[in-house]
Hints:
There is one protein chain. Helix 1 (15-22) crosses helix 2 (27-38), helix 4 (56-76) crosses helix 5 (80-89) and helix 4 packs across helix 8. The chain is 42% helix and 16% strand. With 291 residues, it is of the alpha/beta class. Residues 47-52 have low confidence and may be disordered.
Amino acid sequence: KQFFHCFGCGVHGSAIGFLMDYEHMSFPEAVRELAQRVGVEVPHSTSYTRDLPDVTQALLDALSQADNFYRRMLREHPKAEEAVDYLKRRGLTGEIAADFGLGFAPDGWDYLLKAVGVNDSARENLLAAGLLVKKDGGGFYDRFRNRVMFPIHDHRGRLIGFGGRVLDTGEPKYLNSPETPLFHKGRELYGLYRARDALKREGRVLVVEGYMDVVALAQFGLDYAVATLGTATTRDHLERLFRHVPEVVFCFDGDRAGREAAWRALENALPVLNEGRQLGFLFLPEGEDPD
């Protein structure tokens, strides 16, 4: 009959309403998701977007292959011991590292390029997915080198990018995938897809600064934390979070930068604080962070 009804709580509606409620999608996202499932093309208002080729699947495949490579390197590469030691020093168990799919990008210019970029098409897809960088004189090199790799998923659970934590004193300490057709830092949150059941249970979300905060908190049972991806908390972030929970709590590092980040978060949050939405701040002692 093209509708759903829950005899337990009385909730009912259409397929679009179901995805909006259950998967926490916006209306356009729900329409696109359903159209994709039944092979219908959603009409757009301009010819520009209609004429663009859909690169989504090719990029998802490239990212998945890279993910498998990074995970394998954490297990097999001769220098992976340094990455494992770093994770142990940060107090992480092998189980939580596997749970979050952590990997290792070896220290070299072309490990990923040789393993996954087997032909021109594969190399172009890796470039478009932000995993390779184009050389000025032609050719490519790996973007992530000598880093612990954190896969980043969107709210639908699709792998869309990576964050890498450097293992030596190199800069930047944390490096994210660049903006791509799939990855937009101002809209995505690290750990959100994994935390969705915990958010339902808790009715609140804890927003922290780094991936390591999210992973460490999850290891100790605080599984409802998410992190922004090297950006200030945006209105898009907040709208997405408030689709899941009525209460958002910010917990940044206990230093001046953390307090400034909290103030920016407050400024961005005030315009979206409609009735029924709550905002909180958890301030840590000087020099401490959530991890």
